[in-house]
Write a structure and sequence with these properties.
2 copies of one chain form a homodimer. Chain A has helices at about 5-25, 30-35, 40-55, 120-135, 175-180, 195-205, 265, 270-275, 285-295, 300-325, 335-340, 340-350, 355-360, 370-385, and strands at about 30, 55-60, 75, 80-90, 95-100, 105-110, 140-150, 155, 160-165, 170, 190, 215-220, 220-230, 230, 325-330, 360-365. In chain A, helix 9 runs parallel beside helix 11 (about 335-340). The first copy, chain A, starts with 6 loop residues before the first helix and ends in a 6-residue tail after the last helix. Helix content of chain A is about 40%, strand content about 20%. Chain A folds into 3 domains: about 5-75, Arc Repressor Mutant, subunit A (Orthogonal Bundle), CATH 1.10.10; about 80-195 and about 370-390, Nucleotidyltransferase, domain 5; about 210-365, 2-Layer Sandwich (Nucleotidyltransferase, domain 5). Chain A has a 5-stranded mixed sheet with strand order 6-5-4-7-11, sandwiched between helices. In chain A, strands 14-13-12-15-16 form a 5-stranded mixed sheet, with helices on both faces. In chain A, strands 1-3-2 form a 3-stranded antiparallel sheet. In chain A, strand 12 (about 215-220) and strand 13 form a beta hairpin. Chains A and B meet through helix 1, helix 10 and helix 13 of A and helix 1, helix 10 and helix 13 of B.
């Protein structure tokens, strides 16, 4: 049962709300904070003082406004000092970043990931990258946590990677492995890459302010991060959003999951390359070559891309009827496919979607681009801080 | 931004939490309320006194416990006095009920609905039924609102029925029409029948305590009410859950929505009757005859039922991969189909569902049976009361 919170809980909530606001919106005047948070001036002053004492924000004079009267002080997140480590484990790449409070990527590194690399092999590689980043740390910098975006199904309770069909991972405790390599007392959160990218675009990207969003992410396979009623949809165990394994062709092509006719066999990397007559190729470069060839008029590539675009619209229409979202975002290889076949996507969506479900839906590509998984992974780490700012600091 | 609530908001929250608890769990001792709500005894006493003064609860001695010491007073919802009107508009039936605070159906009436009956024709019929129920009202009874469950897509903002393919309704303001016929100052809420039935089963039925639930409801078509993360999924406009229009057969049979190959063409009334060679029949009785015939060994009926059961499992597997629910409930005609073909449903679900998504999912029939839409419609009305108990009373 939900009951009223205690005074101490209210203070924590208010501290979190203020810090979250400047984390998402950047430097903000006290006057604006008073306004948007619905708290009085003295409360804002006290909360800001607490956060400043903990080293999470600074206060200072605003830039010259040209207006008369005493200007309101500006509250800024400590973007250089407070940071999280973020990792993105993709089929062909390993990426790591240091992301400051406020969402800026302060340092960014990338490695190729040979297909077949295990979690045990990935952890020391990523830890090595972190070691390099640490050498470039400014004085007084404080790490508040780490987040990992993984191409796979992640158990909500403990971050175990249950299954990554495209990486071949089964029951990999990558969070614990990486935490051990980091060798410090940093909490590590793990999330599915599509969920995490959706979180980032919802927090500070193209879906900011949208309560019902589907973020479709393609790497080799396809998954979705879903925001419903303003909150991340996780499902019971954390595995929701496996839209790539919605079967669209009964007894269709064999999928990496072992089933047949999954949506990703039509729109994922393997299906598209096979349809374009390039079954021996793989990776995003090979996909981009198919889109280029289609663009140059290669008939087989054009047919493959249009067909895949039609299937993309087909599945999106099903999801639009099921979720009634206000926005669908195409990320990763789904972005490339959407941009190459937008006419087919829209046409199939319009013919299969119910009119009421379609009427406010916008199709978008990510604002945060390929940084979305990293920024989302960092948001997982910041979420702990924002829930109780003075507990970390 | 979420900030801390005021003292007055906290009191309203606490009043709502206490009243919701006894509404859902029935007579409860003060000691248990203190425990489950996490409030101290004097606060519980004050809240109970306020609710009793408003006529929403009564307090009294418990039944003899046989234990020593002063027994804790028992708080009961005013189930006979405080009530809501509930309506369910189905393809072949109109139903109305008076439901008491606490969820008991106090009075229940039913009419046949000729297919083709318009909203303008339905409203006076239902109002007539209410007039009869009013004559049987006990002294001092107070109506706190009305709720309507409709077989169709309902706009969240104002309850407009945008489209009911099976009823032929388009943009029908049934809430306003019925409100006008009721001729009183009673707020009327409207919801899709599957959403409302899911709400009821989640509040006080088989899904109580489950945070991630799919309630599949079949009448002529098929829809779902979805609970995700403990909350009702509505989508942007209120139209989510149109799972019957998930396309499962590209270029399949024509659906009432105008599209082809929608899931409901395989598992809905028309598809099943057609497959059983009874295209001229319709209604639930005709469906039950097919299930009976299959049970008696009629080969064509058996094939039709098994095939439909396989398709039922096929779509449920897609939804399980998308939502990772802990429970799927089969209501309306989906209950009949599930019970007739459970082996096919489970077999297809197990072969198409991802193992991690399947591992905790339970398949269930509704505890509240055919009352679920009525009880859910009443819950829509009670929800307003529970949000701010002293505003109604």
């Amino acid at each position: 049962m939900r009951v009223g919170p205690s005074q101490d809980e209210i203070r924590r909530q208010n501290l979190g709300a203020l810090l979250r606001y400047v984390h998402l919106h950047g430097a903000t005047t006290r006057a604006e904070l008073t306004n948007v948070l619905g708290l009085n001036r003295s409360t804002i002053g006290a909360l800001t003082a607490d956060l400043a004492a903990a080293g999470l924000v600074t206060e200072g004079a605003p830039k010259e406004t040209g207006r008369a009267g005493r200007p309101s002080l500006v509250v800024r997140p400590e973007s250089e000092r407070i940071f999280a480590y973020a990792y993105s484990i993709e089929v062909d790449r390993l990426r790591a970043a240091r992301v400051g409070l406020g969402g800026a990527v302060l340092d960014r590194r990338e490695l190729d990931r040979p297909r077949g690399l295990t979690a045990a092999e990935a952890a020391p590689l990523l830890a090595g990258v972190v070691k390099e980043m640490r050498q470039a740390l400014p004085n007084g910098a404080v790490c508040v946590g780490a987040g990992i975006a993984v191409c796979g199904m992640v158990r909500r309770d403990d971050g175990l990677v249950r299954l990554g069909p495209a990486t071949g991972w089964v029951d990999e405790p990558i969070g614990a492995a990486l935490g051990a390599e980091l060798g410090v007392d940093v909490p590590v959160s793990v999330g599915n890459v599509a969920d995490v990218a959706a979180f980032a675009e919802h927090a500070r990207g193209t879906a900011a302010g949208c309560d019902n969003v589907i973020y479709l992410y393609g790497d080799v396979g396809v998954g979705a991060g879903i925001i419903a009623g303003g909150r991340r949809l996780t499902g019971h165990g954390g595995y929701s959003g496996e839209v790539g394994h919605m079967v669209v062709v009964r007894d269709g092509a064999r999928c990496e999951c072992g089933n047949r006719g999954c949506w990703e066999t039509e729109i994922g990397e393997h299906g598209l390359l096979r349809a374009a007559g390039r079954s021996d190729a793989r990776g995003r470069e090979a996909l981009l070559e198919v889109f280029d060839a289609a663009d140059r008029g290669d008939a087989r590539a054009q047919t493959a891309v249009r067909q895949a675009g039609d299937w993309l619209g087909f599945g999106v229409a099903n999801l639009v009827n099921i979720f009634n979202p206000e926005m669908v975002i195409f990320g990763g290889t789904m972005r490339d496919l959407y941009l190459a076949a937008a006419a087919q996507v829209r046409s199939r969506l319009n013919s299969n979607g119910l009119p009421a479900c379609l009427e406010h839906v916008r199709l978008r590509t990510p604002t945060l681009g390929t940084d979305a998984p990293l920024i989302g992974a960092a948001e997982l780490a910041f979420d702990r801080l924002l829930a109780d700012p003075l507990d970390v600091g």
